[in-house]
Design goal:
The structure holds 2 protein chains of 2 kinds. Chain A is mainly α. Chain A is 38% helix and 3% strand. Chain A folds into 2 domains: 92 residues, Orthogonal Bundle (Cytochrome Bc1 Complex, Chain D, domain 2), CATH 1.10.760; 85 residues, Orthogonal Bundle (Cytochrome Bc1 Complex, Chain D, domain 2). Chain A has a two-stranded antiparallel sheet with strand order 1-2. In chain A, helix 4 runs antiparallel to helix 5 and helix 8 packs across helix 9. Chain B is mainly α. Classes of the chains: A mainly alpha, B mainly alpha.
Chain lengths: 222, 149
């Protein structure tokens, strides 16, 4: 008989911990009221970033930290929101924060959400040489004008650039290289109609731009 | 040499200077970018004189252009105050009447840098078809209530 309370306690522990790494956690926090977890989830344009390819897009350590201590990536909202830019410029409402345990479980779940047909390993780990990085920085800022809508990092190490697109000032800690490459090459895989110009990049240019974007890092995120 | 030739030279020089930046506060670069050098070769065929401004034109302007140029084209989009070179105010005739429709078309299609203007203006030639770009040129003419002279 003394075994029964112990077994019940053990069962409770198994049920409670670790936090379930599945969609019940997103339901608990009402994530789907803002984010889409499948492309078919809604016919309406997304008011916040889609998460059905979160596992392709994000770096897990960044997700874990963001979910506990959210930072603003899109200073004027999400560009797919039909009301984007139509409202007076106000600060973006803060993203809810989770406990450490919940954040780790949520990051596990989000990293499991991937698109099946997205090739991996297109961008190798070899960083750009110093000279190439300077040339690609010119491509990023001048030839393609990315800096008009995205924050990059200036020579003083400060964020600099437009804010209608998500900040790229910490892209190197936030985004996955393969996802950036695919976004640059075929954005329609992820979004039916974005506000970013399409550049019809060849693979080599897309890889170089990806590596440059992934070199943009701030703070002590390592 | 007649006195008209130096005038032509002066006019050409003025034109080159005007094309070298997209804002009055434009800083000249040390050397022209590769895209700018290639601009004459990639220049598009002359813009047709008549192109309709439709609801889709306005919607396209609001969707893409307003990020920098503002919802009403006043050059006051959310990115404007953060750019080194202010986005063009499309309601100001004093500058836009010095631009031909072809120049506006090329700036939209090829981007600012390719036509010797500021690099803050990206190229939209792979995003918008030529018909829409022609239509946007006409919409800018509506906004500035001006034509090229």
């Amino acid at each position: 008989m003394r075994f029964i309370p112990f077994a019940m306690s053990l069962g409770f522990l198994i049920w409670v911990s670790p936090v379930q790494a599945d969609s019940t956690l997103t339901e608990k926090h009402g994530c789907s009221s803002c984010h889409r977890f499948s492309a078919e989830a809604s016919k309406e344009p997304a008011k916040t970033p889609d998460l059905f390819y979160a596992g392709n897009k994000f770096q897990k350590p960044w997700l874990e930290k963001f979910l506990q201590s959210p930072v603003v990536v899109r200073k004027v909202g999400t560009s797919t929101d039909p009301d984007f830019l139509k409202q007076p410029l106000t600060s973006t409402p803060p993203h809810p924060s989770l406990t450490e345990k919940e954040a780790l479980a949520m990051a596990d779940y989000l990293m499991s959400l991937t698109l099946p047909d997205l090739s991996q390993g297109t961008v190798d780990d070899v960083p750009l040489t110093k000279g190439t990085r300077v040339r690609v920085k010119i491509l990023f800022e001048r030839n393609y004008g990315c800096i008009a809508c995205h924050e990059g990092i200036n020579l003083a190490g400060q964020a600099r650039g437009g804010i209608s697109g998500p900040s790229l000032a910490n892209a190197g800690n936030r985004l996955a290289a393969d996802w950036v490459f695919h976004w640059l090459k075929t954005p329609k895989k992820f979004i039916a109609k974005g506000r970013m110009p399409y550049f019809n990049l060849d693979d080599e240019s897309a890889v170089k731009l990806t590596k440059y974007i992934l070199s943009l890092k701030v703070g002590d995120w390592k | 040499m007649t006195w008209k030739n130096p005038l032509k030279i002066l006019f050409c020089g003025w034109l080159v200077l005007q094309l070298s930046g997209c804002g009055d506060s434009e800083k000249k670069t040390d050397e022209p970018p590769p895209a700018a050098k290639a601009a004459p070769e990639t220049s598009s065929p002359p813009a047709p004189k008549i192109s309709l401004v439709t609801a889709k034109t306005r919607e396209t302007y609001q969707w893409y252009c307003s990020q920098c140029h503002g919802l009403k084209g006043k050059g006051d989009g959310v990115n404007a105050r953060l750019l080194t070179v202010p986005p063009r105010d499309h309601t100001k005739a004093d500058y836009l009447e010095t631009r031909t429709d072809q120049q506006l078309f090329d700036a939209i299609k090829l981007g600012g840098l390719a036509v010797g203007r500021a690099p803050c203006m990206p190229s939209w030639g792979h995003t918008l078809d030529e018909k829409m770009i022609h239509s946007l040129v006409r919409y800018i003419r509506e906004l500035c209530e001006c034509e090229a002279f």
